[in-house]
Specification:
- Strands 2-3-4-1-5-8-7-6 form an eight-stranded mixed sheet. An eight-stranded mixed sheet has the order 10-11-12-9-13-16-15-14.
- It has two domains: 163 residues, 2,3-Dihydroxybiphenyl 1,2-Dioxygenase, domain 1 (Roll); 120 residues, 2,3-Dihydroxybiphenyl 1,2-Dioxygenase, domain 1, CATH 3.10.180.
- Helix content is 21%, strand content 37%.
- Strand 6 and strand 7 form a beta hairpin.
- The protein is an alpha+beta fold and 287 residues long.
- It contains seven helices and 16 strands.
- 44% of the residues are buried.
- This is VOC family protein.
- InterPro entries: Glyas_Bleomycin-R_OHBP_Dase, Glyoxalase-like_dom.
């Protein structure tokens, strides 16, 4: 079964600088992890959801994509060459990635083999643990600048740490992600198959899919700019990931922590614009 939002990949040029930015914005940021395929990451955990800050650390280890096999390293390397920095991947949670892959194949939104990997992690006391994941990929063929997949965690108790989920800015949950597209309705079929949610809500702002954890919203770029007070990423073709929405326990606290990097919107939200957050808009809303 496909559940709610699991994580996003925030592709950045300089992993250390991006980590420092998130810390300055009041998030706890994890240590550097190194993938065997050449990318490095740092993780920001929110209950049930995380942001994967990602950069190319060892380009010589990146393998090219093969038929029916996605190269995560090659995709994000090429994404960064086209787009610079920003949100490159949207990931939903699943309890069975292999079944999800079969469903994507049956719905004609993905004919890829599941990808399994594991790595060593460390608990706060320094003891070693294993974390392992299986991924199943889907593709909106008209949207080359978003990688879509679902993630099954095999040892979630070794990955999630409540102590890492307490942030000085008061962020307590993911409210949703926001995509932009010139014609949001063109993508409702794919998003329904990807999310497993056929019921969508059309609003004056665009399309909304409510998942078990957070919303997936799709807006036109002009609507996004009006709502969030900053430009949307360029949508030369299809969908682009534009913003992350967080619930904050105390929006006044978030304002204090974020300081002059945040702007107020007419909808009672605080927005850190892409210019100050490595190509992504970060939106804080009162819980």
């Amino acid at each position: 079964m496909i559940r709610g939002l699991d994580h996003v990949v925030h592709c950045v040029r300089d992993l250390e600088a991006a980590g420092a930015t998130y810390q300055r914005l009041g998030f706890q940021v994890g240590v550097v992890n190194r993938h065997p395929w050449g990318t490095w990451n740092r993780v920001v955990q929110i209950p049930g959801f995380f942001i994967e800050l990602l950069s190319v650390g060892e380009s010589d280890k990146i393998v090219p994509p093969q038929p029916r096999h996605v190269s995560f390293g090659a995709y994000n390397r090429d994404w960064a060459l086209r787009n610079g920095e920003g949100l490159s991947c949207l990931v939903l949670e699943t309890d069975n990635a292999r079944t999800a892959a079969q469903g994507f194949r049956a719905s004609a939104v993905g004919d890829y083999e599941p990808f399994h990997f594991s790595r060593q992690g460390r608990r706060p006391d320094g003891s070693a643990v294993t974390v392992a994941f299986t991924l199943a990929f889907a593709a909106d063929t008209g949207s080359p600048d978003v990688c879509f997949f679902v993630c099954e965690q095999h040892f979630p108790e070794n990955f999630w740490n409540p102590a890492f989920q307490v942030h000085p800015n008061g962020a307590t949950a993911v409210r949703g992600i926001v995509l932009v597209a010139d014609n949001p309705s063109d993508h409702h079929g794919f998003l329904g198959s990807f999310s497993g949610r056929r019921e969508m809500h059309a609003t004056s702002l665009g399309l909304v899919i409510r998942t078990a954890r957070g919303e997936i919203s799709v807006m036109e770029p002009s609507v996004f700019a009006r709502v969030y007070g900053c430009p949307a990423p360029v949508t030369a073709s299809g969908l682009r990931l534009a913003a992350l929405r967080f619930a904050a326990s105390d929006l006044g606290l978030a304002r204090t922590v974020v300081g002059r990097l945040g702007i107020e919107t007419g909808r009672g939200a605080l927005v850190v614009t892409p210019a100050h957050a490595h190509g992504a808009a970060l939106v804080f809303e009162q819980a």
